[in-house]
Amino acid sequence: MKKSLPISLINAMFIFGLFASLAVAAVGIKNESEIAGSWLLESAAAKLGGPKVSRGETWIIGNGQLEKTGLIMARSGTYDVPPVPIKIESGKMLVPVIGRPGKFTEFEVIEKNADSMVLYAKSEGYLFFKQK
């Protein structure tokens, strides 16, 4: 007599396979020099393949700091953020959360080549950059 797998086990295997295929592997950062430079943040998205929101700010990474310029104000115009110290730990870029001592936003590099980069942070979503 032929035995079959219980339906619940088949469903569990299907769901696991679905989530495994959606997982995005991050590229670990060994040191700051791998991401240093001036980057134009072109767009952001909640999901990697989801709709993108246009952005236009510049991130300057170097000398242990991150400086953001050209951030869009709610009503009109732009503003700059003074440089903040960054750390590279466990393959991630840690950026301090202003006003929250000891709290950091952890950015993972999802994709990187000579002229583009995709970063991911839980609080920010996916950020799509072009080298300036």
Please describe what this structure looks like.
The chain is mostly beta strands. 12% of the residues lie in helices and 49% in strands. It has one helix spanning 7-22, and strands at 37-45, 53-62, 65-72, 78-85, 87-89, 92-96, 104-112, 116-121, 125-131. It has a nine-stranded antiparallel β-sheet, with no helix packed on it. The protein starts with 6 loop residues before the first helix and ends with a strand. 13% of the residues are buried.
Question: Could you provide a short overview of the structure?
Answer:
The protein is 12% helix and 49% strand.
How helix-rich are the residues, as a percent range? 10-25%
Largest sheet: 9 strands, antiparallel
Order of helices and strands: HEEEEEEEEE
Rounded average pLDDT: 85
Low-confidence stretches: 9-22
The structure class reads mainly beta
Tags for this model:
single chain, mainly beta, 1 helix, 9 strands, 49% strand, globular
Topology (SSEs and partners):
Layout (H helix, E strand, L loop, with lengths): L6 H16 L14 E9 L7 E10 L2 E8 L5 E8 L1 E3 L2 E5 L7 E9 L3 E6 L3 E7 L1
Antiparallel strand pairs: 1-2, 1-9, 2-3, 3-4, 5-6, 6-7, 7-8, 8-9
